[in-house]
Design brief:
Blueprint (H helix, E strand, L loop, with lengths): L1 E7 L8 E7 L6 H11 L3 E7 L8 E6 L4 E2 L3 H13 L6 E6 L2 E7 L5 E6 L3 E4 L5 H5 L5 E5 L6 E4 L3 H5 L5 H4 L7 E6 L8 E7 L4 E4 L6 H12 L3 E6 L5 E8 L2 E6 L1 E8 L5
Parallel strand pairs: 2-3, 4-6, 11-12, 13-15
Antiparallel strand pairs: 1-2, 1-18, 3-4, 4-5, 6-7, 7-8, 8-17, 9-10, 10-11, 12-13, 13-14, 15-16, 16-17
């Protein structure tokens, strides 16, 4: 069985966010899917299988962290679309049926892939007691997000504060369902509009290198502040990656690149 490791939201190997990708004939038992994701040990492993023609979607898609299944994942969707297009299994726009609804991925001639995801609602909340201490930085504002991501969006004072975070992950996990998105406006002349880092200790991912789903909340947050629908975000993890966002009301477009770095064989079948 073919298994690939794809670096997403980057155009070069060993950057962006790595995801495992397996194309299957059907989904086997959940325990096997979780075992594979635990073995791959990246933030997410994507499993997809083709659907009968004539329906609302072309492929069924699921995502697992090393600890659990998640409702939505951007970088592993980008990685899956990259595999489908690079192997000739799909062309143009691919429709995925996932736990969060129908998602699409459209490949452009320049090699970029654009994902169409639901926009997260944002609800401003009081700063929870202990959050600043868990992060190790003062908090400017806090917003809750939609249930399909379930994160807390936390605005910090500036880009340096985001880059310098060294949070207490155990304490941080008490403040959100899935995790914490930290963000701030970009510094001058950076080539991007805002910066972020994302921590998901509750699903077994201490820091996610580049989080597509988080940008469905970051896009409306920063579009409202900067007055533009189209923006570029830098996720400033050690691996780093760029996500171009375009806000279209209830939908957010996420555009990036991907590169396959490992193409091998999984010897243990379901």
């Amino acid at each position: 069985m073919r298994i690939r490791i794809v670096d997403a939201f980057t155009d070069r190997p060993f950057a962006g966010n790595p995801a495992g990708v397996l194309l299957l004939d059907a989904f086997p038992a959940d325990a096997w899917l979780q075992d594979v994701a635990r073995e791959v040990n990246h933030a997410e492993t994507a499993f997809a299988h083709p659907l009968p023609p004539g329906g609302d979607a072309d492929w069924a898609l699921r995502w697992f962290t090393p600890a659990t299944e998640v409702d939505m994942c951007g970088h592993a969707t980008l990685a899956t679309a990259h595999v489908l297009h690079s192997t000739g299994a799909a062309t143009g726009t691919v429709r995925f049926a996932a736990r969060c609804g129908i998602l699409t991925a459209t490949a452009a001639e320049d090699g970029t892939i654009t994902l169409d995801f639901p926009t997260s609602e944002l609800v401003e909340e009081p700063v929870p007691a202990g959050l600043a201490e868990a992060l190790g930085a003062p908090v400017r504002s806090v917003h809750g997000t939609s249930a399909h991501i379930g994160d807390l969006l936390v605005e910090l004072s500036d880009e340096a504060a985001v880059r310098g975070l060294a949070p207490d992950l155990r304490a941080l996990g008490r403040h959100s369902g899935r995790g914490i998105i930290t963000t701030a406006a970009a510094g001058p002349d950076t080539g991007y509009d805002y910066v972020s880092r994302c921590f998901f200790p509750n699903v077994g991912v201490d820091e996610d290198p580049v989080t597509g789903s988080a940008h469905t909340a970051l896009a409306p947050f920063w579009s409202a502040r900067l007055g533009r629908a189209e923006l570029t975000g830098l996720q400033a993890s050690a691996r780093s990656g760029l996500v171009r966002t375009a806000l279209h009301g209830e939908r957010t477009l996420l555009t990036g690149r991907a590169v396959t770095v490992i193409d091998g064989e999984l010897l243990t079948a379901p």
